[in-house]
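Human: I'm a chemist; would you kindly supply sequence and structure tokens for a protein?

Assistant:
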Amino acid sequence: MNKTIGLKIRKIRIEHDMNQEEFSNIVGISEEDLSNFENNVSTIPIDILRKIVRIFNVDTNWLLMEEEAILQKNQKIGNVSNSTVIGANVIGNKINIHHPMSFEEMAEILENCNQHQKQINELMDTNKELHEQITGLIATVNKLTDTKG
């Protein structure tokens, strides 16, 4: 987890002269959740990050990336709009930039993943039911075979 996101959330709140109660009410989260996010106890859900970016007009790259990664990325590819997230892996002094993706695209991909997971779960349940039915049929056939023999 990027340890600077919580600090940046706190910085945004303080720069807007808000206490945790005011900030959490605006963003639509509990004060406890905000405290956990600011202290990097919990991961901030993507929809909350989107709200913070939109409400406080925060640069997405600044919020999501480590400072060193931002500097390296800006040197390599230039600035990207606020509505774009760059997937990045930072290893030592190297950064691997992935395809730029908007929050909406990320949300759509996550929703598709959730739908696929639901379908997989349904198929697994169906498979389990079929397995139980087949096992029952085999047991019935074995009983019939044993009684005739």
In short: The longest strand covers residues 94-102. Residues 4-102 form a domain with the 434 Repressor (Amino-terminal Domain) fold (CATH 1.10.260.40).
